[in-house]
Amino acid sequence: MTDRATMLEEAADWADRLDALSPEARGELGEWLHRSPEHRAALARMVRLLGDPALSAVLDHIEALPPSITARPRSRRWSRVAAAMPSRRLAVGMAAAIAAVVAAPLLWHVARPGDAPVERVYATATGQQRQVGLPDGSDMTMDAASRVAIAFSDDGRDLRLESGAARFEVRHDAARPFAVSTPEGQMVALGTNFSVDRGAGHSELRVFRGRVRLTVPGQPALVVTAGHWAEAGAGRIALHSFDARSYQGWQERWLTGDRIRLGDAIARLGRYSPRPIRLSDPALANETFNGRFRLDQPTESLHLIGALFDLSVQDDGKVIRVDRPR
Fold this sequence. Notes:
alpha+beta, 7-stranded mixed sheet
């Protein structure tokens, strides 16, 4: 591989990881950019090819960064990784650059009190999971077909899970509460790692570490501790326990648990299905089952789940229908 090809692939890889860079990685990127004008030119070329105004704005920000702020010693590990990259990464990185840069909140520093408010919307496509570095230094992992809107300011960190599911590793900041809202309620982190999942008419909060205060209109607030998960919906909050150390959920592309609602299972499998999944009889949505099924094999999992209820699964190439056999 030529030096030029390696340089272009390095640029593509940086673009692919822009919204999930650690402080150390940001320093490595700054050093890489200032090492050679050709590196900046390579990134500029990608911006022109993509033709996205948001990318141009980010490039202008990059050009304005002084080397004294961003430069750090080059990582030997990065040199080995760059040399080993397959050539297809250039195309993949360029395609991913649009989503990564448009969604990136503040690419070069962690937002702190006094910064301008940050409002962004993050989304994933069907079958695509994504890791996002949030502007306060927290990390967010999104499930497929999910959408999260954020509004960060001096007073708070407000997130709205509009669809799908997301897991949060929250950076502590007592002066700015970290709150995730759904139509069913609000979850405020008390220094923690937790996930929120939008189900069919309810939301699921699962706490892996720390504590989360769950507030549902018309009910007393409930503090959910590590190893517990809560369902918030039309009725009272239901609290359950789970093994936070061994649990494998959507992050590992598994649909797993006890008392899984059929409606929720179909919604979650639908995040990975190329065609919509329809449950013909709405009355079946609240039927529950136990088990462990692959999310990234939605048709196969549907057949297995359907067998538990003696349901048929029909795929006409446009819609997958789950129904009682005729």
